[in-house]
Write a structure and sequence with these properties.
The chain has about 150 residues and is of the alpha+beta class. The protein contains 4 helices and 5 strands, in the order αββααβαββ.
Length: about 150
């Protein structure tokens, strides 16, 4: 098991749930203070340790023992965005390509692609993905593909 400092430094002191900065000097009893979220898969391999991620205490408490929801940025125009956690889990297991949303313009799709690549670089740093934008039906499909 890692220390809070080790987990925080690996995460760049950003909460894996809300992607906001976590102050390492704040009390662990404060809602915005640091905490470790030990994430286990639904079918953990025997002897496999839980993945430790940094979260604000309030984000970790709010999540509880249910599957986490990592929200898309409210500044993006994405229609029918795919759930980020489930998409990452599927691509980690099977690889391949998965459509994650639709955007009305190429500019919207490019902004969403840039945001998603940046977000996943912290959320799932071991998953190597690239974004793809394809026109179709008067809109632009945003997809993730394993590299």
């Amino acid at each position: 098991m890692s220390t809070l400092t080790e987990v925080g430094e690996r995460a760049g002191w950003r909460c894996w749930l809300c992607d906001e900065p976590v102050d390492p000097d704040m009390s662990v009893n404060d809602p915005r203070g640091p905490s470790i979220d030990a994430v286990t898969s639904a079918k953990p391999k025997k002897g496999a340790p839980a993945q430790e991620r940094l979260a604000h205490r309030a984000c970790n408490t709010r999540k509880g023992a249910v599957k986490a929801v990592v929200p898309w940025s409210k500044d993006l125009f994405v229609v029918d965005p795919a759930p980020i956690v489930e998409t990452v889990e599927r691509l980690s297991r099977k690889g391949g390509r998965e459509v994650v949303g639709r955007c009305p313009s190429r500019d919207d799709a490019e902004r969403a692609a840039d945001w998603l690549e940046d977000r996943l670089s912290r959320f799932a740093p071991d998953l190597r993905v690239k974004t793809e934008i394809k026109p179709g039906g008067g809109q632009f499909l945003l997809a993730l593909a394993t590299a």
